[in-house]
Amino acid sequence: MENNEDDKFVSLLADSTFKYMFKDYRDFFRKAIKSTINVDISEYELYNNEINSGNKSRDYRLDILLKKENDFIIIEMNKNADKRTLLKARKYLYAVAGGGLVEGEDFKKMRTILINFNNSKYKNDKEAISVGYDLRNEKYNDVIDEIKIYDIYLESLENVRYNGSNEKETYLAMFRAESFEEMRDIANGNKEALKVVEELERLSENDEFKILYDAEKMRRKEINSARLDGYDDGYNNGYGSGYDAGAKEKGIEIAKNLLNIGTSNEDIMKVTGLSVEELEELKKEV
């Protein structure tokens, strides 16, 4: 699918959008997820946490993490999914499931689910909407039920429009839309879907949100550029080389804008990748 996304458009297939919409429009996400993979997120809370990726250039910020007692759900919004993206997500699934969330924390048994929203088609079945994975012993058919992976394939939902009985497909298809007009066409009169479009249009006028959203788009483009430029000897090396040269200046510029509108230090560091020390120095300039 070509990237024809309007500069003012706010996509559902973005971590920043999910986080802003989760509080007031949780039921929309709950219905889309539960009807597709039978996982109920209604009692989970958004849990902010960072896991060190081992990338010395820039630690990986876990995108969306939901928590209910000792259970966790990781949600990855993959606008451009590939093998490397999915493997990276699974790496952090195992880190969470292994109790690596808080250094020094006593180990507690926890159920951890990874949900990948992939804007692509499943290679083995182009019509498949979702595919689930277990950790299973082939000889004894024994399953480790603390870990589960679900891939949701959005490109299989092209040309979907609400017809009165396809609510699940309609909600999922809205994730892959690239304009508000396309979203309304998919919603085709569905009241809940249209409310989501209206809220996204309001978000597109929110200056603080747009800075966060645009920073996420920029970061995604830099990752893709690093890959296309031939850094195939390892994601971390490629991204580190591609990122450090030009993106640091962009991160500083974004950080200044966020400071001027009163964004918290934690959010600024997550968006820009600046360290505490770098941010404190920047505050002196601002």
Number of domains: 2
Number of strands: 6
CA distance, first residue to last residue = 41 Å
Can you tell me the overall shape?
Answer: globular
Mean pLDDT: 80
As laid out across the biggest beta sheet, the strand order is 1-2-3-4-6-5
Structural class: alpha/beta
Topology:
Layout (H helix, E strand, L loop, with lengths): L14 H7 L4 H12 L7 E2 L17 E5 L2 E8 L4 H15 L14 E7 L11 E8 L4 E12 L13 H9 L4 H8 L3 H13 L3 H22 L6 H26 L4 H8 L3 H10 L1
Parallel strand pairs: 3-4, 4-6
Antiparallel strand pairs: 1-2, 2-3, 5-6
Helix pairs in contact: 1-7, 2-4, 4-5, 5-6, 7-8, 8-9
Structure write-up:
There is one protein chain. This protein is of the alpha/beta class and 286 residues long. The chain has 2 domains: 205 residues, no CATH class; 81 residues. The chain has 10 helices and 6 strands, in the order H-H-E-E-E-H-E-E-E-H-H-H-H-H-H-H. It has a 6-stranded mixed β-sheet. About 9% of the residues have low confidence.
In a nutshell, what does this entry contain?
With 286 residues, the chain is α/β, with parallel strands linked by helices.
What are the key terms here?
six-stranded mixed beta sheet; alpha/beta; 2 domains; single chain; globular; 6 strands; 286 residues; 45% helix
